Amino acid sequence: MRLAIDCRYTRIGRHDGISRYTAGVVTALKAMSDAGDPALDGVQLAMIISDERQLELLPELPWAKVSGPTSVLEPLVALQVNRLRPDAVISPMQTMGTLGRRYRLALTVHDLIYYSNPEPPHDLPGFVRVLWRLYHKAWWPQRVLLNRADAVVTVSETTRGLIARHALTTKPVVVARNAAELPTASVAALAADQAESRAAAKTLVYMGSFMPYKNVETLVRAVALLPEYTLHLLSRSTPADEERLRAIAPAARLEFHGGVTDGEYHALLERSTALVTASLDEGFGIPLVESMGHGTPVVVSDIPVFREIGGEAALFAPAQDAQAFADAVTALEDAELWRERSIASRAQAETFSWEASARALAELATGWSGRARRR
Question: Which of 353, 343, 49, 304 is nearest to 198 (CA)?
């Protein structure tokens, strides 16, 4: 069986969320194949890319190049993919063109955020941004896209529940969760041993964009109520973002990093009191897993998907209640509570793995192997 993974959403040079998901599952699939895992018995893996520079962030596997996912050729991309003769293709997005396809296909829905928060990501081409807004004005375009596939993949039980609630597909829905590369257990153990100094560090980390649904404004207001704390905002920001957030609470101690390397990010996590996020909606929340993996507690908005990810380890606050966020952070000044949350955080992070997600995808694909390839 030839199984191809659509890797065209891999970013050049540095991962974003979907890029990291793609690389995580395809790397885990290769490791399973190399180990002779029975789940991939008889399966030949390959990658579909649109730029050879993407290979720098992907494992060594056979690959083929087709047009990019934002190209005007995307509706017809299946005609290019057909020439590779795959039996099945798994795409990390739901927008892969399917006209004329001759293979089984699984499309992925990461979240349904943009139905309630319709502003598109700022880095998309103009014509894609227009289509994005039109697409999210009604549910039926999503149903049309998803029902073109043979199965749908999503990254959380929360999103699977939303797909069912809105009757977005008649096809099977499989959960292959996001994960993160965790540091060694000794790193997390060291964090627990440093509970007293970490609880007293009064350093908070935010990793995420500045889109409206991220609700960073609540974090700024919370930090204004914590005059000895500094909030480190790690992602790339515009001068307008910084001006807007500083104007909310001029006395709040905010440090904008304008983007950080993975090493810088991890170093900040390893000396911070907590990671914080006040998102109004999410499909998952990789920063939570990353922080918990380092043994750093998380203080997050009380939304269903964060309950799923954070479990008993996280501290929760109503999404727009700055005082509740400040109170939860203050609670972590108790070194024993900080230590307990640190240990619980690492245990919770270990429930997520790329291998488990890759295995779910392998089982989906090999379930098709006894059925004729689509003609």
Answer: 343
Lowest mean pLDDT among 161-175, 204-218, 308-322, 357-371: 357-371
Phi, psi of 96 (to 5 degrees): -60, 130
Q: How wide is the angle at C-alpha 206 spanned by C-alphas 202 and 208, nearest 5°?
A: 180
Handedness of CA 94, 97, 98, 101 (dihedral sign): negative
Give dist(CA 108, CA 154) in Å, integer: 5
Q: What is the distance between the alpha carbons of residues 301 and 249, in angstroms, rounded to a whole number?
A: 20
pTM for the whole thing?
0.89
Alpha helix stretches (DSSP H) within the chain: 17-34, 77-82, 113-116, 126-135, 140-146, 157-165, 185-193, 195-199, 216-224, 239-248, 262-269, 286-293, 304-310, 322-331, 335-349, 354-366
**285-342 confidence digits (pLDDT tens):** 999 999 999 999 999 999 999 999 999 999 999 999 999 999 999 999 999 999 999 9
Cβ proximity of 268 and 205 under 8 Å? yes
Judged by DSSP in three states, 209 sits in: coil
Residue 17 has pLDDT above 90, yes or no: no
- Please write the tens of the pLDDT for every residue from 62-107: 999 999 998 999 999 999 999 999 999 999 999 999 999 999 999 9
DSSP label at 54?
G
Number of neighbours of residue 311 by Cβ within 10 angstroms: 16
* Residue 68 backbone dihedrals phi, psi, to 5 degrees: -75, 160
* Overall size of the chain counted in residues: 375
Q: What is the mean pLDDT of the chain?
A: 93
- Residues with Cβ within 8 Å of residue 122, at least 6 apart in sequence: none
